Amino acid sequence: DLQVVDRLEQDICNFDFDIEATDRPQWYLQAVLCDRYPDEFYLIWSANHVITDGVGMLHILKSIVETANSGDFHLRPDQLVDSIEPRAFELVSKKCREMKVTTHSALYNCIIMSLLEIFGVGRAHTMEFRTSTPFNARPYCKPVVPSSDVGMYIGSIVRDTSMSLDTIHSAFWEHCRDYMQYIKTGHVQGLRHVSVLEYVGTFPEDYTQGWFDRIKSLPMGRGCSFIFSDVGKVVIPHKGDSSKHWDVQALHCSQSSFVSGCGFIATASSTNVGGLNLAISYQKMDFTKHEINLLMNTLKKNILNIPLYQPSKL
Questions:
Q1: Which tens digits make up the pLDDT trace of 32-53?
Q2: What does the alpha-carbon distance between residue 275 and residue 9 come to, in Å, rounded to a whole number?
Q3: Which residues contact 211 (CB under 8 A, 6 or more apart)?
Q4: Rounded Cα–Cα distance for residues 237 and 272 (Å)
Q5: Which run of H or of E encompasses 104?
Q6: Quick one: which of 232, 276, 233, 280 has its CA closest to 256?
Q7: Are the C-beta atoms of residues 312 and 171 closer than 8 Å to each other?
Q8: Tens of pLDDT along 151-194?
Q9: What are the residue ranges spanned by the domains of the chain?
Q10: Local structure of 127: helix, strand or coil
């Protein structure tokens, strides 16, 4: 069943929205049912990134859930069974809190660590990375844009760094704090790139030429090594409220990678009912399926090893 859903998600991420056709929708909503589980379904909501960002999509998703919960549905009760992974990840979160760093910063450094393990040449080999971290720019608008606005309001914090396996293993938590500080002070730099497309020129020919020129001018045709997009924790009503009839058990977000953007995109999402999902999307021919599977397995190993890292000795 999950393989069927995975194939559907892959097809959706590969779908090419036609932004020139004004009579075609720029978003789709699909409900996937399974005969074996009559009281469950998958809801797949996809949209063209031109018309909305992650915050806007999540607002619509929450509205859909709330609308469904207002109906007169009566379902048999179900009981969620805890698996090992949520408990293991709680140890990760606990260690991050103990070291006073965000889980986001730990995941970011785990991604870099995994890339060093797979593509590096020895533990002392230093690799250079340029990363991009999108952020919600609504609070920085004048006037402030509410989260319920489903438009496109994002900035991106670009960071250049170089690391080796030896340096990141010996000072993992310090690298997390360095990244946190950079993100904390990097919003001004990220906001400088907002609305720059307004000055590109005539659509679509000047836009297309702009992207071609961008590909030629960038190292390996890429704006950065990878994008780490974290939509944060989504608070969704659950069955603790007697008026609710549907329960969201899991949520994960992904987005199509684009030619001149990055090597791959890592998208993290979580909910108030627990659990964190991380999706990886990439351009075919840039990575092999084996390399991506190796990246996911290595990343999982490094995340589960987070509780083992100790403060570095000064």
A1: 887 777 777 788 888 888 788 8
A2: 20
A3: 259, 260
A4: 9
A5: helix 103-119
A6: 280
A7: yes
A8: 888 889 999 999 999 999 999 999 999 999 999 998 888 887 66
A9: 85-308
A10: strand
Report H helices in 171-246: 172-185, 187-191, 205-217
> Which amino acid type is present at position 222?
R
Cα atoms in the Cβ-side hemisphere of radius 13 Å centred on 300: 12
The pair phi, psi for residue 104, each rounded to 5°, is -55, -45
The CATH topology of domain 85-308 is Chloramphenicol Acetyltransferase (3.30.559)
Kindly report the pTM of this predicted structure. Answer: 0.71
Which regions of the chain are under pLDDT 50?
A: 73-84, 314
Contact present, 153 and 141 (Cβ < 8 Å):
yes
- Contact of 275 with 86, CB cutoff 8 Å: yes
201 Rama class: left (phi>0) / alpha (psi -120 to 50) / beta = left
Best CA proximity match to 183, nearest among 99, 104, 271: 104
